[in-house]
UniProtKB/TrEMBL annotation:
Protein name (record): Lichenan-specific phosphotransferase enzyme IIA component
Cofactor list: Mg(2+)
Gene that encodes it: licA_2
Co-factor remark: Binds 1 Mg(2+) ion per trimer.
Matches recorded under Pfam families: PTS_IIA
Top class in the EC scheme: transferase
Amino acid sequence: MSPEQIVFTIISHAGNARSYCFEALKHARNGDFDKAKNCISKAGEEIIEAHHVQTELIQKEVQGEKQEISLLLIHAQDHLMNAMLAKDLVEEMIGLYQIVFKGGRIGE
C-alpha cells in the first residue's frame, strides 16, 4: 500500500467506526438496545481494521523501515483516536440509557 492508501484506509475505518457509534447512541436513546449493541460491535470491528493498518506501520518502523511523518498520517491517527474515544464514551452512555429505561437510578 502506498502511504496515501494507508492514511485513507485508517481514516475510512475510523470514520465508519465513529458513525456506527453515533448510530448506536441514537438506537439507545430510542430504547432499542439490541440495535445499539450491534452498532457498537460493528464500530469495534472497524476500529480493529484501522488498528491492523496502524500496527503494520509500527512493525515496519521497528524493522527499520521508517514511515514519513506527514500531516495526513497525523490526521489519520487523530481520527482513529477519536473513534476509539467515541466508542468508549458511547458505550458508557448506552449504559446510562439502559438505567433510565429501567427506571433505576445511577449508582444502584
